[in-house]
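Batch job 17 of 40 flagged for manual review because the log was empty.
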Amino acid sequence: MERMERMDAGMPFLLQYEHVAWYDAGQVRILDRRVYPAQVRFVTCTDYREVVRAIADMVTQSAGPYTAVGMGMALAARQARGMGAAEQRAFLTRAAEELAHARPTTANRYGQITRRCAALALQALEAGEDPVEAVVRDTIASLNRRYRTMQRVGDALADLIPGGGAILTQCYGETVVGAVIRAARRQGKDFRVFCAETRPYLQGARLTASCFAQMGFDTTVITDGCAAFALEREGISLFTSAADTIARDGSVANKTGTLQLAILAKYFGVPYYVTGIPDRDKHSRADIVLETRDPEPVLRWGEGPSHTAPGVKGLYPAFDITPPHLISGVVTDRGVWVPYLLERYFDGGEAAFY
């Protein structure tokens, strides 16, 4: 395959393309973020349904599935070789829908990628060309597009962070983490980072903290219950998170715990800046579907034994919704928006992102 431009130069290990999800020789390798950084382990998929399962099982999270679903469609295109035209169309359409719905809250975003990949694969098959190559090229182009767009977001967020200040993060903001690091380095700006651990998978402790520490920032992990203490006593300049979906009314869904951190930030007078691109097809919080996951990870620590007594139940909603009155601004590729005016973001038209 012809070498393509890549936008992951200078990014931390987690954000380099091969370490997110990568197709090669009939396999998709996905970095297992459930065990990183204690282990650098990859899950290997040879069937697109295995990619669906890997996403559902949290092998990759945040924006990682955007890449994984595209590479999963490359597997589906490979599996469709040798089928009749009608069978290929049905197979690729089914694969696109199954990959898109690997997790419900972000199905609209995944679907933009998988349906486009299915259409490209069918076009390539009809033209007698390699459908796998067409899908992989599109997935890499999509990665480049997202990294380029999120760099503008990272630049805008870095402008809001005072030199020598401190930020509080929630969960793992994927591309914007690398983007704000690159922007800060370019500006010669340094700041401290406090990462809420993000139970039960500890994405803040394992992923966000790893990225900032790897790139030389003073990085501290706090328990999820320590946020009020840190906001009161550690001189935190702003709280920031990415978003799994941003509705046009300024409502934001992100990893569970974001709402309580936003409430605490409001109480202590610390601004909360959400990063991301609004979803045109979600007009209000009523359009946001919240995923509820198997509560088993809440009842134990990692892969260890249960730390609760028999009969104790768990509750694990994957996301919560933060209302606009708790948000100081939504940081986008088109600048920082008051959440109540977010509808105007679309006045400039809608550029391809996913």
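Reviewer: the log was empty due to a logging misconfiguration, but the result itself is present. The longest strand covers residues 27-31. Unflagging and moving on to job 18.
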